[in-house]
Amino acid sequence: MKKHWIVFVFCLVVISISANVIDEARAVKSWLDIPFSAATFEAERDAKISEWENHVKGEFETTAQFEQRKKDASNRIAAINREYQQKIADARAAHENQHAKLRVRLQTLLNSSRETVVVSATLGRYNADTQKYVVSIPQRGFDVVVPLDKAPQVKDKFNQYQVKATRQLNEELEWEYLDARLEGPLGVFSSTDKAPALGQTSVTQSFFPPDLSATVSFSEPSGNDMLDAEETATITISIKNNGEGSGNMVEATFELLNAPGVSFARQIYFGEVKAGATVTKTLQLVAGMDTKDGTAQLKIRFSEQNDFAPNDVNLSFGTRALLAPDVYVSDIGIDDFNKNNKLEPGEQAEITVRLHNRGQGVAKNLNAQVLLGDAVFSLGDSATSFRLGDLEPGDYQDIKFMMVSAPTATALNVSLDLIESRQQFSKRNLPLNLAFNKVERTADQMVVTGRNQQSHISSAPALSIDIERDIPQRTEDKNRWGVIIGIENYRNVSPVSYAHRDAQWMKEYFMKVLGIPAANLYMKTDDAATLGELKAVFDKGGWLGKNAGKANSEIYIYFSGHGVPDADGKQAYLLPYDGNPNYAFSTAYRLEQFYDNLSQIKAKNITVFLDSCFSGANRESEIILADARAVFIVADPQATAKHVSVFSAANGNQISSGYADMQHGLFSYFLMKGLRGEADSNNDKKITQKELYEYLQENVSTQARRMGREQDPTLQSHDQSKVIVSW
Hints:
Layout: H1 19-32, H2 39-50, H3 63-112, E1 115-119, E2 122-127, E3 132-137, E4 140-145, H4 151-156, E5 162-169, E6 175-184, E7 187-190, E8 212-219, E9 226-228, E10 232-241, E11 247-257, E12 262-263, E13 267-273, E14 278-287, E15 294-303, E16 313-320, E17 327-336, E18 348-357, E19 363-372, E20 376-378, E21 385-391, E22 396-405, E23 414-419, E24 427-431, E25 480-486, H5 499-512, E26 521-525, H6 531-538, H7 543-548, E27 554-560, E28 563-565, E29 572-574, H8 584-587, E30 589-590, H9 591-599, E31 605-611, E32 644-648, E33 658-659, E34 664-665, H10 666-678, E35 686-688, H11 689-706, E36 714-716, E37 723-726
Parallel strand pairs: 9-16, 25-26, 25-27, 27-31, 31-32
Antiparallel strand pairs: 1-5, 2-3, 3-4, 5-6, 6-7, 8-10, 10-14, 11-13, 11-15, 12-14, 15-16, 17-18, 18-22, 19-21, 19-23, 20-22, 23-24, 28-29, 29-30, 32-36, 33-34, 35-37
């Protein structure tokens, strides 16, 4: 920070009047003549304010965004004015305080200049009535008191007397003669003017330094501890004073490296930080659309009036480039008046359009506008314009509209405008590809296949995935507990298709079908499902044992993700998000240990559903091990405890498949389908382990063969008559 005041250090001991004292007094006086000026502060303030003025609407900026930017700028200008108002007030106070010290110092110097000197003088006429002589020196005259009886002799022998005068520098740095006296044969005779007593010119003030320290934290709204494009991060800076004196004019200045497209204030003024106090300020880092992937470094430099500043801080954080949304028409369904799944001239129909964001970024302030061609009309008061708000990556929304064509119509030209707040992400005139007398998909026939993205984005649910609709609602049971782990995207290996979706919908089944209260459910997906997290929930003394380890508890566990064998196939492991299949022993969770930990939990029943295999391959039969070959487990670990049952997606030498048509794991799809009631073979409104197992064997194995694969679910249980769900 620039210094806008001058600190002077003086020698406080003056032995005698000298040229040095006069020179110093002259310097002090010249410093006192310098008035306070806020010009430098005002220039800085005006330069900063100019950066926030003269707004021009951007090409890809909506009016609402432009108005918000102007409002933000107005708020920023007000904040700059407040900051510099305080800065100027503090600088003025510091200037006045320094002037007060200088005035004390000047008076001390003037007092130290006082001295008695012998001067030449003339003796004037004696006034017998007042008994005074007028003694004149070149600078002035003095009335000197001489008794009447001695006056003649003093006059006669005046040449034997010395005239001594007391003099002192005044504020104009000129000698001022204060008194005089005659010293001679008859004694000392003094003037009626007396030099004033030297007053107290200074008060000793103890100085107590501050002891300032700074803490800095970084936060941002997405929770990924990175500054994403179009995101605003907050740097919180707290300065604490552990000293006995105040820190004054404390300021932080910022330099941001390797962060193009990020705007921020260059300085934050803290002002005074009193002893024992903490002052907290925040810095906003606003990332624009042109922010790049990288690691930024924020250098924070502190200053204080007397150089008792906190230590500087360097803060590093990641930046991420703009993740673009990609909203498209993922599916279309019709409900036509004639119920023949065809659109015919003159026929009324309800059209359902599913919009899905398969991009990596949020679609902001999305609007959809239906465009109807010649001889196609909106029916009644059916809406054709839809405000959809923000659409997160992977999310979808449906729009519905009624239309009717003229009997003479020859074509169905119906399209859609998708308008996003950033024009470059808008899409215009997207054809819905509807046609007359063509069998269209109805809502019960639609299936959507998604596209792989940089980070896997699950497809929007097609309107035909039966297990995702009309899930039965069973009675909630406070004694039931659930753990759901779904890992689709792994750090070190290829993804498990649909595992995230499996977990999300299994959560619905755990709560609605199995009746597990939301408070009793523990769920982790993708990068949250680390080895540490698996240990935290399944190890002895972990979350599951502490919360559900009661005699009347019923526990349900679902895992969808990679299973891996060790190199010789003797051990099987559950692979967490951060696991490495080539080092399963140290980075994965051993299945045998998993079963052993469950056996020690004191619960009524524990039921495990494993949608994973242990071949070292994924759902597409791609090998995930380094040597590119499948390693099948020799001995399948067994759950030996009587109260633990395990449903597995496949046996040890098979691969757990994905079911692309239904966008779920094959085992998970039929597991949910069975739990909703399909597995109740005797229609007694109860599903036992045996019924569910037989249902899974029949349906999973059959569908796998249709797909050209072998997959046979297994069940480990000491009592297959146990009821899983009833209603």
